[in-house]
Design a protein that fits this description.
The complex is a heterodimer.
Chain A lengths: L16 H33 L4 H6 L5 H10 L6 H13 L13 H36 L4 H15 L2 H15 L24 H8 L2 H38 L2 H8 L4 H29 L3 H6 L5 H10 L3 H29 L5
Helix pairs in contact in A: 1-14, 5-6, 5-9, 5-11, 6-9, 7-9, 8-9, 9-11, 10-11, 11-14, 13-14
Chain B lengths: L1 H21 L7 E6 L15 H10 L4 E4 L5 E4 L2 E6 L5 E6 L13 H14 L5 H4 L8 H4 E5 L2 E5 L6 H8 L9 H6 L8 H4 L9 E7 L3 E6 L12 E6 L3 H10 L4 E2 L4 H8 L4 E16 L9 H9 L3 H9 L3 E3 L21 H10 L7 E7 L4 H13 L4 E7 L1 H9 L5 E6 L6 H9 L13 H4 L5 H10 L5 H18 L2 E14 L2 E2 L16 E2 L1
Parallel strand pairs in B: 1-10, 1-11, 14-15, 14-16
Antiparallel strand pairs in B: 2-3, 4-5, 5-7, 6-7, 8-9, 9-10, 11-17, 12-16, 12-17, 13-17, 18-19
Helix pairs in contact in B: 11-13, 16-18, 18-19
Classes of the chains: A mainly alpha, B alpha+beta.
Amino acid sequence: MTAVTQAPPCRASAPGRLGRWGRALSRELTTVVITTFGLLLVTFFIARVVPIDPVLAVVGDRAPADVYEKARLALGLDKPLWHQFAIYVGKVFTGDLGTSVLTSQKVVDDIRTVFPATLELATLGTLIGVVIGVPLGILAAVNQGRWQDQIARVVGLIGYSVPVFWIGLMALLLFYAKLGWVAGPGRISVVWQDIVTTRTGVIMLDAALDGEWEAFWDAFSHLILPAAVLGLLSVAYVSRMTRSFMIGELQQQYVIAARVKGVSEAAVIWRHALRNAAVPLFTVIALSYMHLLEGSVLTETIFAWPGLGRYLTNALLNADMNAVLGGTLVVGVVFIGVNLLTDIIGRLADPRVR
Amino acid sequence: MRHVAKLMAVSAFAGLMTTTAVIAQTPKDTVVMAKQIDDIITLDPAEAFEFSGVEVGANVYDKLINIDIAKNNELIPDLAESWTVSPDNLTYTFKLRKGVKFHSGNPLTAADVVYSFQRAVTLNKSPGFILRQFGFVAENVLEKVKAVDENTVQITVSKPFAPTFFYNCLTSGVAAIVDSKLVKANEKDGDWGNGWLKLNSAGSGAYKVRSYRPNEQYTLDANESWYKGAPKSKRIVVRHVAEPASQRLLVEKGDVDIARNLSKDQLEAVKSNDAIKIVQGDKGYILYLGLNQKNPNLAKPEVREALKLLVDYASIEKNILEGTYKGHESFLPQGFLGAISDKPYSLNVAKAKELLAKAGLANGFTVTMDTRSVAPITDIAQAIQATWAQAGIKLEIIPGDGKQTLTKYRARTHDIYIGQWGPDYLDPHTNAETFAINEDNGEEAKSKTLAWRNAWDIPQMTKVTQGAVLESDAAKRKTTYEGLQRDHQKVSPFVIMFQQIEVSAERKNVNGWVIGPSSDTNRYATIVKN
């Protein structure tokens, strides 16, 4: 599903920069279109061949035969598969992802409400990952083999290997139930419910726009714990990758040259080595962000967070095919989009490609 | 970089400090529940047929007749003040209560009752059959359900059914009375307002829907001018919390007042908390095994009886289900007319082995069981696997999700299905019909009851069960069902094991929450916080 492309080799006698850019962009766009179509095709057919009767999701187990048949026809399940697919693709192109059986709302509207919740969580999670993970990785690389490195390793191990639902529950037990530092499961307290006007769907942003600062802090205290739990995963990943990139850079000749020149150690690390490690590191961070944007089912379940991951899982378990297809499509498009963006930024940041 | 990090740390710390002050208990006049509400498909009473959707309807709409759960599920007047039935048991006349108003302020009249019946019958969604079984179809419903005057409704049914049967069906959600003017105003493309009612309400009941966000929350506001008097709490907020462990933390912290879906482990844990008390009530859900009679081994009567003797009911109840289910071995749940408490079976490996030998299967056999991968179903299946092995029966558990196992069950391609069955309405016929009627055992049968799904061909029992629904003498009707269940226990391919108990954990200051026998009777109006 990824569309990572290698940076083209740098040639001295390159044609105009614009032409090269145009070609690269059109290649990227072709990849995007093909990937998206492939995604649609595969999801659609997987959804249709699973041994689950989608009519059951509409009428339930008790419906008499005539009600069942009516619902089957309404879903268009009597038509041949390719025909169903053609109808579906046609609708998708007009921005219609169909209606969810479970929520009886348009899938587009559903996603518009669940995606901001996931976006909020993923963004803060990634931010935590970067703010803690990058310095931790650098610290470990610079102090390779010493206690700082060991601490970073343990943090990484915990983030990688301890199941997230366990960390989530333990964190709730400690910070919410025992210490009372943060608010419990849910996105906002009942007192603030329906007070903040929904504009973006990101509650903190909406509260800030309304100037409801108490609601803002309430939303923040609900968000911080699940974000920190996701952030821990991100910290683990980002710090390990930062460490290995930095170790690689610190062994390069330009680092030795800089040290010989008498450049301060801080400048060597932050200005020289980190800047070179930044390009691959950026890809890593983007990947981890994309991963979080797909929604984390377990975290969302434990923290009663109405996000995309839970929406998709619920749809899957209930054979709500429009929601599954629509959700997968959105995840796929976001994935491809962030990938494309990373590529472009990578190109801009890398002087050899620029 | 360093400055940014410092700034982040400072602001995060400041955030944490502030939030400790913000966390508040729930508002005094608002009752907050944590509940799994992702089963809701719609709030339209003519379509809702899942626990949570029906429960909303029960608090938003009134019906002609209702049930008093405090008096052993006795029928009581609701919107109908009184009613009579003609001597031939075909025509019912309901006198409506005067002066009742909908939430919109529109007066409730006989026209609304007619419209509500017409709407449910014509829409014919999942629960529509509860009314349609009395002979109403879209074409004749206006002849069969008539407004005699502003406050009188006359309903004619197709057969001389037992009046208790008809009354009991009128207490179910599909027979709720909707505000015809409001619904008509929100109709779109002849959908009878179905699209609008999925998310809104047009009732006269204790509460009105303030907002509903699927998979997230619904909020109900009190109807201060409810004909029974204003509900005790001004607002009910029900939040979707999928994880029982999270529900437990929320109720222990006081961020919710009632937690609705605690599992056995969580219940045990909150029992020791002084701020929490437990409320429980019998639910109609039956947990059973269905033995497909297409499997030649399972079709042998000795094998069916042996399998019933090879379930360790007592230990499953104690070790797996404690507090959430209780032993129950007949198809009518406790609380229903004609329910019996006979428990003829308990674990008896020796006797089961004898029966298997008689059936020519002394060395046992291999059989599969489609099992939904959720607690407690999987655990029960494993417990059964262990005891069946003692008699040489090798049980292969085929795991799957709910819709997957159900699809197979409905196509009759299973060997054994382990599942639950809940009554559709509060009358014995609902379970009797599905467990003991199979009019046509062919693949293309019109009525696919549970007996049909297990390919159990029972012309004689079908007749008896169909007769019971026409028995106008309530006492005789009761006796018929009792006898029917005792026969059923002996010969049926259903290993009926347990009946569900619904349990809530609530804060000590919450009073008046009573769990009824069905979602139609889970009422919020009496809940109050001190």
